[in-house]
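Researcher: Let's do a round of design. I'm pasting the structure tokens now; please hold your answer until I've finished.
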């Protein structure tokens, strides 16, 4: 049974940084495009960033562009999200997910595996 496990969330002050990790097991990773989403209670899941299987192509939401950076290590079967200059509005549960289609189609329904999520809280 394939799974994704996120880690690295926590409480940080505005302006600080966090690095999220997501490790895959039991599923094809090296040829899969991956992404990070986030969600706050009462709102829809929001796309944050995506990366193609080789790591050479990335996409970011406008709200995190130039502050967040996605990367991956196919040997470790891991995808990362480096989050800098964090703002209170970045507070959410962050999920990593595997795409069935493409890193360039950031629609949640096109992702087939999801992690359990990791909470990120940014205080002002």
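Researcher: That's everything. Go ahead.
Model: Designed sequence:
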């Amino acid at each position: 049974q394939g799974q994704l496990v996120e880690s690295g969330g926590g409480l940080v002050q505005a302006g600080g940084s966090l690095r999220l990790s997501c490790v895959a097991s039991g599923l094809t990773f090296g040829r899969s495009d991956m992404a990070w989403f986030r969600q706050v209670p009462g709102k829809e899941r929001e796309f944050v960033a995506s990366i193609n299987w080789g790591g050479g192509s990335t996409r970011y939401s406008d709200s995190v562009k130039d502050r967040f950076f996605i990367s991956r290590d196919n040997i470790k079967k891991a995808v990362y999200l480096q989050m800098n200059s964090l703002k209170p509005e970045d507070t959410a549960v962050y999920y990593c997910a595997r795409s069935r289609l493409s890193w360039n189609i950031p629609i949640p329904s096109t992702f087939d595996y999801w992690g359990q999520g990791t909470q990120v809280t940014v205080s002002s």
